[in-house]
């Protein structure tokens, strides 16, 4: 008998929020950076991307999407890769804490 490997069922993403994104029509390099980018240039680029994200009406949806996947690269919802990893850990701790207090 062959074994069937089950895959984690992720909800299919809803892309409708992207229609209202402040970054729509912007150059993708601003949010994902070019190959070989040096840290000073990356800092400037990320500040510009985050400024666009700051006024975005769908910032929370974008961040939630990136955290649920998880997106490994780029600026999503105003956070870069390292910031999203920290946010993901914070949310996991908060969820675990809520689970303990609810028991």
UniProtKB/TrEMBL annotation:
Upon Fe-S cluster removal intramolecular disulfide bonds are formed. The Fe-S cluster can be nitrosylated by nitric oxide (NO). One of its GO terms (cellular component) is cytoplasm. Residues 76-103 are annotated as: Disordered. It comes from the Bacteria. GO terms for molecular function: 4 iron, 4 sulfur cluster binding; dinitrosyl-iron complex binding; DNA binding; metal ion binding; protein-disulfide reductase [NAD(P)H] activity. One of its GO terms (biological process) is cell redox homeostasis. Its cofactor is [4Fe-4S] cluster. It is found in: Cytoplasm. Binds 1 [4Fe-4S] cluster per subunit. Following nitrosylation of the [4Fe-4S] cluster binds 1 [4Fe-8(NO)] cluster per subunit. Pfam families: Whib. The keyword Calcium does not apply. Its main location: cytoplasm. Residues 22-86 form the 4Fe-4S Wbl-type domain. [4Fe-4S] cluster binds at residues 23, 53, 56, 62. The keyword Nucleotide-binding does not apply. Keywords: 4Fe-4S, Cytoplasm, Disulfide bond, DNA-binding, Iron, Iron-sulfur, Metal-binding, Transcription, Transcription regulation. HAMAP family: WhiB. Acts as a transcriptional regulator. Probably redox-responsive. The apo- but not holo-form probably binds DNA. Belongs to the WhiB family. This is Transcriptional regulator WhiB. It comes from Nonomuraea thailandensis. The gene is whiB.
